[in-house]
Amino acid sequence: MLQWFRVDRPIALAYLALGLAGCTSSQPSLAPAGMQIVAAEQVNAWVGATAPRTGALHRFTWLYEDEKASKGGRGSARIAVPDTLRFDIAGSLGIGKGSAFVIGDSALWVVPERSVQDLVPSFPLLWAMFGVARGPEPDARLAGLETGGRTAWQYANGPDTVNYLRVAGNPVTFYSEVRHAGKVTGRTQMTASAEGVPLKAKLTVPSVPAKLEITFYATVPTPAFPASIWTRPPEP
Fold first, then answer.
1. Number of other CB atoms surrounding residue 82 within 10 Å
2. pLDDT of amino acid 14
3. Per-residue pLDDT, 29
């Protein structure tokens, strides 16, 4: 089952894959005709091709838009191998700061914690914003297709479906889509250089509508972070 968690509304509007609703998209089909049942070993190889090879500090700008508001600012994301993420965001003039610490499919903390107003899209969408695919659960039904520089794969587990599509080239384009009971929870599109440096990412969720776009402007390889990076900051 896909995991969900709640965050405070101001963070939800700003923080990457979290707290968004989205617009329609012209993305190509993430589940193309001809997909067949595939073995877990094959899927693990496709997932592994998206995994971070080393830790990195990413800096980016973000812009959130819906029918009622438009806001943006700057942020950073620290990713440690294999699946640890801390990110920090702030709006213009430093207003609307937020931080979160995620390992795999769990949020260990989100600061600030205030009244909860939004259900957030699932963790596969969050990781896909950084070009990383999550692996399937042990009992998921797996399908996939690899042809012409395109690799598409799907996990189906009860009412939940996760689709990925990776298109080789320069830049590399990586898409994800999450559905629950047939309804699209969210979609992402992320581009990276041939060397794997992230360039841009966009999340849309077809329920409000709204979108979040992030533009990466610096990536610093960082094999190890100090332990203090993962410490929960005080509430503002």
1. 10
2. 35
3. 63
DSSP string, 139-205: T-EEEEEEETTEEEEEEEETTEEEEEEEE-SSSEEEEEEEEETTEEEEEEEEEE-TT--EEEEEEEE
| Best CA proximity match to 155, nearest among 129, 186, 128, 176 | 176
Residues 186, 15: Cα–Cα separation, whole Å: 15
Q: What is the per-residue burial (b if ≥16 Cβ within 10 Å, else e) of 200-218?
A: ebbbbbbeebbbbbbebee
pLDDT in tens, 25-49: 445 568 888 999 999 999 999 999 9
In this prediction the pTM is 0.85
Domain boundaries, the chain: 6-225
Tokens of residue 76, six digits: 């950073």
Count CB atoms within 10 A of the CB of residue 181. 9
Residue 71: predicted pLDDT: 83
Structure-token match 């049942």, residue found? 37
Strand partners, 191: 173, 200
Q: What angle do CA 197, 81, 121 make, to 5 degrees?
A: 75
Q: Which residues of the chain have pLDDT under 70?
A: 1-29, 94-95, 113-121
Fold of 6-225: outer membrane lipoprotein receptor (LolB), chain A (2.50.20)
- pLDDT per position as a tens digit, 51-70: 999 999 999 999 988 888 88
User: 203: closest CA among 4, 27, 29, 67?
Assistant: 27
